[in-house]
């Protein structure tokens, strides 16, 4: 298990040059945009426009801050994502454009290469204390949006600041998350 602190994340330009992304974690380590198996990042979107295309990639998008945005993905009907809607999965190689609802947003972007692995994203609202069991034979990450404490059953505990993450690599473990009033935590599961 490894704690990833928000201040240590790598910043880099978007693939299409239209903004900046904050890379939380990538596998293999130091992989680029063309050779990752999985990648977890955050981005601030300040204007309407097209998404970068990633051939062979599946992605899930969640709104972390801001009023939200409406996505037009291929010929599907538009879908509006907000901080309250569930994480939304779609193919990253289908032409996609975004229109902001009311000003800039920050999103969470989880991407996996189809021939290498798959993923799932769950948004938890923690009130008081909640237990999460990580899956066997997977990589799990908990991304905290608020101050929280994470404790391993019978073991270590960590104080998590906003945007800090805990990465659990191929170890099933029970984690207790404790929040003062409430906290939003994103659980990301990556499977081969």
From TrEMBL:
Keywords: Plasmid. The keyword Nuclease does not apply. It comes from the Bacteria. Pfam families: HutD. Gene3D superfamilies: Jelly Rolls. InterPro entries: RmlC-like_jellyroll (IPR014710), RmlC_Cupin_sf (IPR011051), Uncharacterised_HutD/Ves (IPR010282). The keyword Isomerase does not apply. This is HutD-family protein.
């Amino acid at each position: 298990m490894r704690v990833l602190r928000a201040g240590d994340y790598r910043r880099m330009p978007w693939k299409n040059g239209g903004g900046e992304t904050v890379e939380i974690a990538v596998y293999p380590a130091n992989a680029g945009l063309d050779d990752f198996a999985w990648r977890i990042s955050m981005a601030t979107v300040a204007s309407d426009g097209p998404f970068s295309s990633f051939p062979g990639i599946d992605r899930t998008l969640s709104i972390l801050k801001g009023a939200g945005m409406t996505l037009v993905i291929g010929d599907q009907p538009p879908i509006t994502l907000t901080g309250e809607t569930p994480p939304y999965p779609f193919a990253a190689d289908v032409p996609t454009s975004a229109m902001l609802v009311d000003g800039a947003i920050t999103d969470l972007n989880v991407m996996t290469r189809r021939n290498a692995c798959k993923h799932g994203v769950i948004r938890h609202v923690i009130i008081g204390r909640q237990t999460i069991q990580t899956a066997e034979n997977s990589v799990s990450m908990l991304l905290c949006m608020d101050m929280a404490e994470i404790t391993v059953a019978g073991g270590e505990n960590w104080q998590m600041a906003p945007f800090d993450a805990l990465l659990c690599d191929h170890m099933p473990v029970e984690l207790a998350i404790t929040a003062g009033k409430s906290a939003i935590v994103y659980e990301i599961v990556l499977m081969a």
